[in-house]
Design brief:
CATH architecture of chain B: Beta Barrel
Strand order of the largest sheet of chain B: 8-1-2-11-10-9
Strand order of the largest sheet of chain A: 6-8-9-11-10
Shape of chain B: globular
Number of domains of chain A: 5
CATH class of the largest domain in chain A: Alpha Beta
Mean pLDDT of chain B: 78
Number of domains of chain B: 1
Order of helices and strands of chain B: HEEEEEHEEEEEEHH
Distance between the termini of chain B: 33 Å
Low-confidence stretches of chain A: 131-161, 303-311, 543-552, 729-740
Number of helices of chain B: 4
Shape of chain A: elongated
Number of helices of chain A: 25
CATH topology of the largest domain in chain A: Heat Shock Protein 90
Number of strands of chain A: 21
Radius of gyration of chain B: 17 Å
Distance between the termini of chain A: 59 Å
Oligomer: heterodimer
CATH superfamily of the largest domain in chain A: Histidine kinase-like ATPase, C-terminal domain
Strand content of chain A: 15-25%
CATH topology of chain B: OB fold (Dihydrolipoamide Acetyltransferase, E2P)
Structural class of chain B: alpha+beta
Helix content of chain A: 40-55%
Helix content of chain B: 25-40%
Largest sheet of chain A: 5 strands, mixed
CATH architecture of the largest domain in chain A: 2-Layer Sandwich
Largest sheet of chain B: 6 strands, mixed
Largest interface: A-B, 29 and 31 residues
Low-confidence stretches of chain B: 1-20, 175-185
Structural class of chain A: alpha+beta
Chain lengths: 740, 185
Amino acid sequence: MIPDEYLQTFVVECKELLEQMEEALLIVEQAEQDPEIINAIFRAAHTIKGSAGMFGLDPVVEFTHAAESVLDRVRSGEVAMTSVLAALFIEAHDHLKELIGHVAEGSHPAEATDNHGKTLIARLEAYLGETPAEQPGNSGSSDNSGEMPVIQTANVEREHSDAVVGTDLWHLSLRFGPEVFRNGMDPFSFVRCLASLGSIEELVTVIDAIPAAAQMDPESCYLGFEISFSSDADKLAIDSLFNFVRSDCFIRILPPRSKASEYQRLIQELPEQEMRLGEILVKCGTLTPEELDNILRLQSQHGDAPQRPIGEVLVEQQMVSSPVVEAALAKQQQVKDNKKSEASLIRVDAEKLDELINLVGELIIAGAGTNLIARRAGMAELMESTATLSRLVEDVRDSALALRMVQIGGTFNRFTRVVRDVSKELGKDIDLVISGGDTELDKTVVEKIGDPLTHLVRNSMDHGIEAAELRLARGKSAKGTLRLNAYHDAGSIVIEVSDDGGGLNKEKILNKAIERGLVAEGANLSDKEIYNLIFEAGFSTADAVSNLSGRGVGMDVVKRNIQALRGSVDLDSIEGQGSTIRIRLPLTLAIIDGFMVGVGNASYVIPLDMVVECVELNAWASDEGDGQYLNLRGEVLPYRRLRDHFVIDGDMVQRENVVVVRYGEHKAGLVVDKLMGEFQTVIKPLGKLFSSEKSIGGFTILGSGEVALIVDVPGLMGQIEHEREAGEVVPFTRSGVVMH
Amino acid sequence: MNAIVQAAQALPAMDGSQGLEEQQQYLTFMLSGETYAISILRIKEIIQYGQLTEVPRMPDFIRGVINLRGAVVPVIDLSARFGKQPTAIGRRNCIIIIEVALGAETQSVGVMVDAVNAVMEIPASEIEPAPTFGTNIRADFIAGMGKINGKFVIILNIQHVLSMDDMAALATAGSAPSAELVQAG
């Protein structure tokens, strides 16, 4: 049995290939007839088939084979890649994805899936223009398109009219090179693979190459096979099975009804003795004894002919036409190129990476401890050495974190498909414009952002972008545009989903909110506050519930998911011109640069990204009664004492400091007792017990071993805002609306 | 609340059979003058009460968090959890670190007690089922009444006492009054 890890690699690779395939298909569907893209699709299908064959995954092989055959014809220009065909391939891609999914889970596909696959195969085969039962050798005449596969053309237009060997079977001569085992290949898997294309009628194992026991290297492969094979597959399909071993193996494939002279050449090329080979061929049932005699006679006539390069021979024989050879060469080149780029990448288990990050986290804590001791001991040399150490640890931290950074482009590109499907479903013509795809963010964040984004994109397409008629009536182009954009801003990543649709209707939202009891009647809300109401639970303004959205679950889930990532979401809209949803997320979840402050006896860490500056309270505070704001160079800065907010006992200190924090467009001051400076902070999760407390983002362990709390600035500001509202009129009947 | 009780009923089946029949060792400890016992199966270690960081805006029974060799562990004041006065800090205060099942994983939780007494053997025959009323703590917190030297001690169902769902719900509710408090001040 195949070890699980290989199967895992197979699944991962297949998924990547499928992604590439999907991407290419979507381009092709846009009527781009770039042969390179068609080739890319073909290669993906082909590689999947090849690897699936090695694992003996017959359903996958069978299905991919059908797709591949059609693709091959597209590639050779016999079938045009219409958008209808591209759509069919996208369906085929989805089915394949499902099959691979089952492989990954080790489950068996449901019957419905199987049937779906069969339907798809039938639909694909319709493009082949021939019934599978026909022999490739004579199918040329039945192909009314006039353009026939190159190989079959070769068969028909053969110049010499020498005797044709009367068998209906393919003949394959395989001699595996000595390196095959060392390259991790198993000759038998190819044989098994072959069986997926047809049935092996006879197989003779050629062991003539095995040397005497003394010289034999157990790691070398000395095996050869002569196989007589019945199949409806074309030559390329059979030939391509051996892509993995082509470089160091001798492989000859003779189609059914090949001429005697071809067999003669075959015999000439094979390393074994002529008579011995002849016997094998007879044993295989490929040749009758008379035919063999005939061939051997031919052989003796041409006996002195010098050996020519195999490629040349093949071309002359018209076994393969020169375009095929060129294609094969190009393919080999591509395989080599791919290998080059693979070499610079290492696939690493994400768990190992997490473990590394955890260890780096521990290292930082331990390092901070050592620093503290060094400073206490007052040894200059030790302090110097710990300073160097901290710098290195910081570098290690940065590169460890960088390991987990991935570009968001991959996630964005997936939406090409979503937009295509949804716009078809809705009957709208929508363009997706992606920008900022190279913006990097933490892998864990990327994984979790997919679902909320999907929801937002679907929502924008369903409710945002109007139907074509309405768009034209409003003086816009009939084609709607959806934009996905990402950029870095103040230690967070901002992801924007914007559309040029109708925008949000303030009145409608407000009325709905009042109706649903989310807002008290007569409440005075700003535009932004009204827009953000759509993120409340149980809110939906769509008059009709469509298949896609409008059930009123979703936007609140989106908001919750994003908040769970320590992020926030807000919305801008201009009625009639469209709306933009902005998601703001932290770059990383594990380690941050923190700014440590002291309040009473407790230490708090404020993420450094959020800190703008620190000022002394007394020097700046306004003396206007108990107003909690100060005049910061002409700017009004509201502030809040952490001591009050966190209900901390203890005496007030003489000189309080204000840490000015910024989150998005909002600025505020946090009044603390002591400023303790920068500090590398490993975030320890809050755990279930404390997760309800919005103002705290996590714990961290200080060098002294003490636990400090990390302030969640957006959460804290939301809380303060909320309390202020609770103290004034109560505009909302439920908690949960956080406004900045 | 109902859901918690239901979930809770499923657990003692496992805990009970193991705790009461095969394994009969219990740790006894003091809490405001009364003796309680818990099965030693879930106890990870006992540490001295030391440096503890308070977490603001939390109900009384969540005392704070400690650093247990690099892991942040919440500490529960058992006395406050039972609705009594919070434990006063004394010389003999201890934190019992207990592993609590949380879904498929386990989480360490510290329990603060006045003093730890001893590990005792209580045979199953010496354990009476919990009375439905008459005790001064919630009935679902009690796994049984153990007899030690002719006196009853309450054997706690620690999985219920430290139910994360239950405590988190209280913590959420607990942050509301403290918010009002802030408003006043």
